[in-house]
Amino acid sequence: MIVSALIRLLLLDIVSLGVLLGIVLLMARQRPVAYAVLKRNFYGYFANPTGYVFLCLFVLLTSMAAFWPYEFFNSNLGTLSQLNKWFTYIMLFFIPAITMSIWADERRQGTDELLLTLPATDFDIVIGKYTAAAAIYTVSLLFSQLSTFVVLAALTLGEVDTGLFFCNYLGYWLIGLAMIAIGMVASFLTNNLTVGFILGALFNAPLAFAASSDAVFSRDFSREIKAFSLSERFDDFGRGVISLSGLGYFILLTTLGLYLCMILIGKRHWSSGKNGNEKLAHYILRALCLVGIVIFGSVLFRNKDRRY
Question: Is the pLDDT confidence value at 79 over 70?
């Protein structure tokens, strides 16, 4: 029973990783500079022992959140309901650990100027760094998934709903992709790793703590705020449902973060010119419009939801 459940999960993982590998290979062909940036940042992260420390700590924290609370054994269910409750808060620690060095370390070492002289667009650099961070997070999540599944399967003698389990981790992955994009904005604002870590956590904190807004605001107002929280949009995935509202929210949030990174990395082109202030106002207006698109797009997807 345990072996068969594990095989089913591995098959789902292999198919998913195959799709992601296809996207990376397409990038290598169409965007070779972005692919080079991806490889450099991915290998650089795991060439440092700190990367393995954060990976092991992430696996430890997710395992503790899943099985340590007594509610897991009281419920007598082989689900990840306890981890679902704490996952976004764990990510406030882990995601900044990945994103803090995305650009801050380049500026600290003085390699940012060399990187910007490559025959590449700003989009190549941003998307290369983003996919590197996403790849690091995906590897960490795979280790967490396999370790958690083995424990859960052993406790339930293999009676695990593999589809529900996989859907939970798909939701975790989407949460991470959105938080990475927001965390990267913090890294582009500073050349200090510690400041980058703190800012990355602060920028993502409203999305995580919005789920607890009823402790501060009235019931009606807090309901609207909760609708834009990470845990609220993850809720469908936690129930084993892939919803259009959840996918749309995470995609829009990721797009917003990447566009803000594009503005920050492109600042060197226009900030020192005679029209620098006008350009600044122009890009601020663009960013605000995109925030509006994220808000109204999320509401639209929620009202026109499709669930699988």
Answer: yes
Rounded to whole angstroms, the Cα distance separating 158 from 3 reads 8
Buried b or exposed e, range 178-189, using 16+ CB within 10 angstroms: bbbbbbbbbbbb
pTM over 0.90: yes
**How far apart (Å, rounded) are the C-alpha atoms in residues 156 and 88?**
26
- The model's pLDDT over 253-302, given as tens digits with 9 standing for 90+, comes to 999 999 999 888 887 777 666 776 778 888 889 889 998 999 999 889 88
Q: Which residue has the tokens 């620098």?
A: 276
Residue of 107, 121, 113, 103 lying closest to 41 (CA atoms): 103
Q: What is the pLDDT of residues 210-251, one digit of tens each?
A: 888 777 777 777 788 888 889 989 999 999 999 999 999 999
Give DSSP secondary structure letters for the chain: -HHHHHHHHHHHHHHHHHHHHHHHHHHHHH-HHHHHHHHHHHHHHHTSHHHHHHHHHHHHHHHHHHHSSTHHHHHT--S-HHHHHHHHHHHHHHHHHHHTTSSHHHHHHT-HHHHHTSS--HHHHHHHHHHHHHHHHHHHHHHHHHHHHHHHHHHHTT---HHHHHHHHHHHHHHHHHHHHHHHHHHHT-S-HHHHHHHHHHHHHHHHHGGGGGGTS-HHHHHHHHTTSHHHHHHHHHTT--BHHHHHHHHHHHHHHHHHHHHHHTHHHHTTSTTHHHHHHHHHHHHHHHHHHHHHHHHHHHHT--B-
Sign of the C-alpha dihedral computed for residues 112, 118, 122 and 128 taken in this order? negative
Query: What mean pLDDT value characterizes the chain?
Result: 87
Q: Does residue 14 have a pLDDT over 90?
A: yes
In angstroms, what is the C-alpha Rg of the chain?
A: 20
Provide the sign of the torsion angle of the four alpha carbons 140, 146, 148, 151, taken in this order: negative
Tell me: pLDDT of 252 over 80: yes
